[in-house]
Amino acid sequence: MFESLSDRLADVFRSFRGSARLTEENVREGLREVRLALLEADVNFTVVRDFVERVREACLGQDVLKGISPAQQVMKIVHDELVSLLGAEAATLKLQGASPAVIMLVGLQGSGKTTSAGKIAHMLRKQKMRPYLVPADVYRPAAIEQLNVLAKQLEMPCFPSTADMKPVDIARAAMAEGHKPDVQASVLLLDTAGRLHVDEPLMEELSAIKAAVNPQEILFVADAMTGQDAVTVAQAFNERLGITGVVLTKMDGDARGGAALSIRAVTGAPVKFVGIGEKLTELEIFHPDRIAGRILGMGDVLTLVEKAQSTINAEEAEALARKMQKASFDLEDFRTQMRRIKKLGSLDSILKMIPGLGGVREKLTQAGGTMPEKELARTEAVINSMTPAERRNPDLLNGSRRARIARGAGVTVAVVNQTVRQFDQMRKMMKSMMSGKNGAMPKKLPAVFSGIPDMGGIGGISPFPQERSSGSNPSAKKRKKRERPKRKKK
Fold this sequence. Notes:
Blueprint: H1 3-15, H2 24-40, H3 45-60, H4 70-86, E1 101-106, H5 113-126, E2 131-136, H6 143-154, H7 167-178, E3 187-192, H8 200-213, E4 217-223, H9 228-241, E5 245-249, H10 258-267, E6 271-275, E7 283-285, H11 288-295, H12 301-311, H13 314-325, H14 331-344, H15 347-353, H16 360-367, H17 372-384, H18 388-392, H19 399-409, H20 413-434, H21 474-483
């Protein structure tokens, strides 16, 4: 998400570094590149024109603050305008009024409405609400069955629709069912059929459903991969139904970001959620300031911390910190940490949220190193091949045990030796880190990241001391120099 746009904007800010102050000439030149970057990201032309004009006025209307470079000043202005363009503040669901509240999901076929209904239901249940899933798509084969399967996975009620029922009748019956004592729903999620905005009979059907159940929220579900087309369709749906918000799906794909940057300005409806994966837990609230930070390469630590807090038990984290302080952190704990990291998402996405580390993946690829996910999988395979006693006490690992582990993990004995050696180095380093004032962990990265395997020391995040070749290790150079035979004097 936003990779190409982020790279282009980074080049723009670099172009200001050699300038002593902001002038009309360098601002014009920089904003020309900003305009091209936004257009290439498939942002609506009118939105781009207005955005660039606002940035230009802000750049030329301000003096460069003392102690701040022109590049930093321009970045701040662009950041503020991006936040404003994206909606300033996170928009929440407004479910006040009649009970049960109704959320109606609309959009094109294949945009992800059914899956989004399940994701939103999961999120609402965590907020102590009682969602009731209502399949009202009688046109797409197995659409009703798909929502029933999601309901079973989530262990929540689902209205028993059938393909021969009319969508308007389904909506009315579901409202009546939601009031019953055995359901007692607080929110109905109405999954409607996908349709083109030019399909008049089907658009009329949506208007009839809206009139029948009077939904508090009409969420337009858009596939972010469609870019500018999603904005055009959203505008048509908005004119017909008056959408209250947008859900952008497939934002983990190759989305250039144009829909996210355009849709609010064109429709006036805020983006409320973004889908970042296929799992029912992979739905995020859309925070304009955090998205702007990601676009400009500033990271998104708040979202990362929230993810960590939702997957890590506080008591377990405290117990782990005590183990690390006493150097009793074993391979069992290490494996647990790696599994927690997987729950946070791919390492690629995690690194992008940490300020200054967004380019680590590219550096790894350029260096020809092993990608983090592969390294994690290999390390976990080695640990899984050990017995519980070996994981708790790596000192038991003699030659024959290591050979058995290597066969079980499908790796060489050298890989097993490297994993054990690196773990031992990490454990020693953790002990020295935790022996600071009050035994507190240094405020660099959350403790959960102690499970990341060696990534070559790139970006300074590797918990393992990097094993350098003699070409980059000063002590190795000295040994090499001592071992070199002296030349005989002529």
